[in-house]
User: Fold this.
Amino acid sequence: MDAMSPHLFDDATPDATTDAIRNRHHVRNAVIGLLVCLALLALAPVGTVLYLEHRLSGNVDRIPGVFDGLRDRPSRPAGPAGDAVNILLIGTDRRSDVPTTGSDAEAASWVVGAQRSDAMMILHISADRRSASVISIPRDTWVTVPGVGSAKINAAYSYGGPSLAVQTVELLTAIRIDHVAVVDWTGFAALIDAVGGIDVTVPETVVDTARAVTWSAGVHHLDGAAALTYVRQRYGLRGGDLDRVARQQAVLRTLMQSALHQEMRKDPKMLFDFLDTVTQHLSVDDAWSTRDMVGLVISMRSFETAHLTYLTMPVRGFGREGDQSVVYADRRAASGLWGAVVTDELAEWTARHPRSLTPTVVS
Assistant:
């Protein structure tokens, strides 16, 4: 891959994709769609799971060739830890009024320079399938992008799509990524609307200077469009990119609670309608077959959402690289976190580093 300027995509416009050939593959807050989908299926009766496998398999779109030709990848751990599953969840900042992922995609989901990853998380599912963790990597993290050089991690997706995003994350973490899942902004809003909206608590009044939106202190009930505005705020947050990550995880946590409500689990039609919405907006790598997904779900039947934790990669602070505001990883602390993922010992690591857990109430 030829080297490119790390500033190339700072001012990229969505119009660059207007005439692009349709390429229904990737994007957005996949963590929400995939986690809810897996959790709901894991809690559903086996017969329901098998029925949904048949009925919904046509909804999930496949991203071709994500792992083809990737070299020097981290090896899979030996022993029981090798049975853990690591899924890279990507969301991009493409501004599109039409779906760009899932079976209903109407526009190209990735064109060089058109969009960066707006959210990047690793979903780690333990080898015994009893626990899971969502680890966020701030979008402004300064990293080495293979074949490009130093850049923000969110640029990797623009330079080379999901394949380069995988390479970049594996280089940063030394974690072998097993699968990739993505869903676009349209899908994100649809999921929120499918559960009737969500409630978020804003601890203190915050002004989104870019959108001229004021979030007053207190509880807000958000529909899909409002939730989208909430999680995408970049300016006016005291903690910058870290507060943005915390907001994304708080919305994920709330959506999970809403989707897994007892009423949803007992009402087959409500369950099916929600999963239908999820899968219509979901894209995964083509190596992840529907049968393998269902196999993972069935193996998670002992999973409880109380054993789902949300973490953020340790950082040592903010800085500037040229005219870019960036986040610097705390490499020593982060290496401990990544090592705990590899050895499937996240629960023990989290107990020793509780500050890495994302708070339940954020700005």
User: Anything to note?
Assistant: The two ends are 40 Å apart (CA to CA). The first helix runs from residue 30 to 43. Confidence is low (pLDDT under 50) at residues 1-30.
